[in-house]
Amino acid sequence: MKLQDVAIVGVGVTPQVKRSEKNSLQVALDAAKLALADAGLSHTDLDGIAARWPGPGGTELAPGSADWSTMLGVPLSWIGDSYPQGIPALVDAAGAILTGQATTILITGGQAGVLGGGKVASYTRPGNEFVAPFGAFTAAHFALVAQRHLARFPYARQGMAEIAATIRNVGSTNPDAVMYGRGPYTAEDVLAAPPVVDPFTLLDLCLASEGGAAVVVTTLERARDLRHPPVVLLGAGMEWLRQQYVDPARYEEVWSIGAKAARKAFGQAGLGPSDVDVAQLYDVNSLEVARQFEALGFCGEGEGTDFALATGIGPDGKLPTCTDGGLLSFSHIGWGAPTLKLVEAVHQVRGTAGARQIPGAEVALAAGAGSAAQYYNLALLGRAR
């Protein structure tokens, strides 16, 4: 078996909201049920899971003594909880399937009941040595990178605003997006929005919202007998420079993070950037979208905003990007946000995105993390050949 013999067969997303009445465990389970139903499978078909551990140990989802096998009602052959979301979880699941550790794996997660009170989301201020004492938060880390870039390429600021407006306007027309009906926005609206941390305004930055997301992964052989056309893993790559949000990011180290991962993923798939039909980039802020175009090989350094504007990243453009409205407008659910990128990529490739479907989408790029996080991952998904 090879990487392309692994397929995503089911996806599920709970309602995405600013604040949920449920807790993180409940929305993760709700998303899991939706993904299994989408695949036409039962919980009894699962023998593996990638998720934050519900009880003591691992990457704890919520305090308690619950465990996934008890809640699912099935014994599990494989559990992945080192980075159990998005592309890393998909790569781990593929490895488990290819080595015979499991046959059908659930990836699920999200957050609920953790936001509110007018405070910065707790996960944006981890208790690290140079974060907690000085009040740094995620957007400030990214602002350090953005300030350095704009010192070199000041013309990029207008392009950042155009990118933010484009993605937010996609979300404003998506009934499932948190920001549905908010908009349309112009670049001038973005620039004039309340400042958060220089150079970012409120409309340059992603949401903090609540909900769950899940995908089901199995072999291509089994996938061919299930409900939807299988979406296979064509290639994937990851880079880890250092632990996120401990040391401030240095522009010279992090601006191109993702370049090596992209070369690996495209090499595995036998494709290049020009073969990508839709890009589900990790749009934590407007400049990160432009940065990823540069790092992933779509254009050169300093050309990201111009590339986005010239190519067109809206639904009618040559490279539709964040086609559900992205983290900027659809939702950002903490640990579950990377999985949202896989869900939308799958919908586009198999043609089940409804009104937001991009005609002829056969290859989708899904990504996670970014420059100030100091790690990056991406996957290429496509139709089974």
UniProtKB/TrEMBL annotation:
This is Acetyl-CoA acetyltransferase. GO terms for molecular function: acyltransferase activity, transferring groups other than amino-acyl groups. InterPro entries: Thiolase, Thiolase-like, Thiolase_C_2. SUPFAM superfamilies: Thiolase-like. Pfam families: Thiolase_C_1. Residues 259-382 form the Thiolase C-terminal domain. Gene3D superfamilies: 3.40.47.10. It comes from Pseudonocardia thermophila. Keywords: Transferase.
